[in-house]
Design brief:
Elements: H1 2-11, H2 13-16, H3 20-51, H4 58-61, H5 65-115, H6 118-123, H7 126-168, H8 170-193
Helix pairs in contact: 1-7, 3-5, 3-7, 5-7, 7-8
Length: 194
């Protein structure tokens, strides 16, 4: 599915050239969104550690109990708010680019259908032509909006979460990355052949 969506996006490239800056901005925003999403479970873990009276990270070790919890609450609130704002911005821009893409494709298809001979329009059923001009173009915009960008966003999130896990516990990260993934790949390949 990933490669099919990517091939379709590649074909749509000529329609996306006018929105290069917005697309690059969408891709750049992926990193802070992923980072703020990966930091939130760490903050909750630190709060649990403080409540259990265990040793905490350096930035919380020299504070009192109430100050530590307050610092975690404020930091968690800021990261949630930051992520919400960036995801809203990102979603808006993805949809805006998708709509401009749809408009460009429809304009080109309309110009092409007008340039066709009347004989072609006499033979072609109206419903089939309208379906092609509306539903198929909407499907292309949906592939861009949720398909390709969503896959890239998930991939970036996976990398950021893996790096966060690596910074916390190398052993667990090694197990999850190198020991579990081959079994998932084997399961995927085995289920595909059945």
């Amino acid at each position: 599915m990933f490669f099919k969506d990517f091939r379709r996006i590649k074909k749509l490239g000529k329609y996306l050239t006018k929105d290069k800056k917005t697309i690059y901005l969408i891709l750049i925003v992926l990193l802070p969104v992923s980072f703020s999403g990966a930091i939130q479970p760490l903050l909750v873990g630190q709060a649990i550690t403080i409540l259990k009276n265990e040793t905490t990270d350096v930035w919380l070790s020299k504070t009192f109990f109430g100050q530590s919890i307050n610092a975690i609450i404020v930091t968690l609130f800021i990261t949630v708010l930051f992520r919400l704002v960036l995801q809203g911005y990102q979603t808006y821009n993805i949809q805006a680019v998708g709509q401009r893409l749809t408009a460009r494709i429809r304009r080109e298809l309309f110009d092409h259908s007008i340039s066709l001979s009347l004989k072609y329009h006499d033979k072609m059923p109206v419903g089939k032509l309208l379906t092609r001009l509306t539903n198929d173009v909407d499907a292309l915009a949906e592939v861009f909006g949720s398909g390709a960008v969503g896959v890239i966003a998930d991939f970036v999130s996976l990398i950021v979460i893996s790096l966060t896990m690596l910074s916390i516990d190398r052993g667990a990260c090694h197990f999850i990355t190198f020991d579990s993934n081959p079994s998932f790949i084997f399961y995927y390949l085995a289920s595909k052949t059945l």
